[in-house]
Specification:
The complex is a heterodimer of chains A (204) and B (65). Chain A has 8 helices and no strands. Chain A has 204 residues and is mostly helical. The longest helix of chain A is centred in the N-terminal third of the chain and has 34 residues. By secondary structure, chain B is an all-alpha fold. In chain B, helix 1 packs antiparallel against helix 2. The N and C termini of chain B lie far apart (45 Å). Classes of the chains: A mainly alpha (204), B mainly alpha (65).
């Protein structure tokens, strides 16, 4: 977010336009790789016959969601498997801002190539796999990506006039507790939807 | 006796608090809107509830990115 977010309140004309181009490129590139990754996982789930298992599939996703919520509430120190890296900031110097935005989008769109931040992120590939549908897998991954990219689009809204990008990143770090709470609410919401699906006799 | 805090100290702190509370409001507002919409949608299309959850899970990755 930091690399893509200039203090746009102060920016006018060409600078604002280039921000729009870069953020659009970032969003589209990430959506494309998310779509591919989600569809591939959905296809794998379909090939393994996971889409037809019904209640056991719902139970697995429910368990992952519950474990992630328990971890984020601090009730258990379950380790979070993740790839400990960030996107390469050097790309902006080597390729220019627009190509760097595209490369960052491609990289982040693959979902698991960088820090996951919170444990519930694992729900996304598990959902895509156990739904056993390339279309639904792609939908879940693209939805996750859109939520992720939305933070870059809303960065100017979060910055009052005169605030700089570093200040915004600081404020985001300070908001970690609120973000974690929102994450846990999303996990609880997922469990409620899964229960509704199970009671209705449906499948993922 | 404590001295009154100088303006040089209180002004930046005031600005920091303003940015923090603004960011916190947006951080919480997006999940509230998405899950609120999901509550309506899920009654007709249950699987879309899971899509809404994925949006919020993606949104909460904004810390540390």
């Amino acid at each position: 977010m930091g690399a893509l977010t200039p203090p746009v309140q102060a920016a006018r004309g060409k600078r604002r336009r280039s921000w729009l181009v870069n953020v659009t490129a970032f969003t589209v590139a990430g959506a494309a790789t998310s779509l591919l990754a989600g569809a591939a996982l959905g296809y794998l789930g379909m090939s393994l016959g996971l889409g037809h298992i019904g209640a056991p599939g719902i139970a697995v996703v429910f368990a992952v969601s519950t474990l992630a919520a328990v971890r984020e509430l601090g009730w258990s120190a379950i380790p979070l498997p993740q790839f400990p890296r960030q996107t390469a900031g050097i790309w902006a110097k080597r390729t220019g801002p627009t190509w760097a935005a595209i490369l960052w989008g491609i990289d982040l769109g693959f979902f698991g190539t960088t820090w996951l931040t919170f444990a519930g992120a694992w729900l996304v590939p598990v959902l895509a796999l156990f739904a056993g549908s390339p279309a639904f897998g792609a939908g879940v991954f693209v939805a996750h990506w859109m939520g992720r990219a939305l933070s870059v689009w809303l960065a100017p809204v979060m910055m009052p006039a005169g605030a700089d990008t570093l200040r915004l990143l600081d404020a985001l770090t300070h908001s970690r507790r609120a973000t974690r709470l929102a994450h846990v609410v999303a996990l609880a919401w997922t469990c409620a939807v899964l229960l509704a699906l199970a009671v209705g006799g449906g499948s993922l | 006796m404590h001295e009154a805090p100088s303006l040089l100290v209180t002004r930046p702190l005031h600005r920091e608090n303003a940015v923090d509370s603004r960011v916190r409001r947006v951080v919480i507002a997006i999940p509230a809107i998405v899950i609120g919409a999901g509550t309506v949608i899920v009654q007709s299309y249950p699987r879309l509830g899971l899509i809404c959850a994925a949006v919020v899970l993606g949104w909460t990755r904004l810390v540390g990115t």
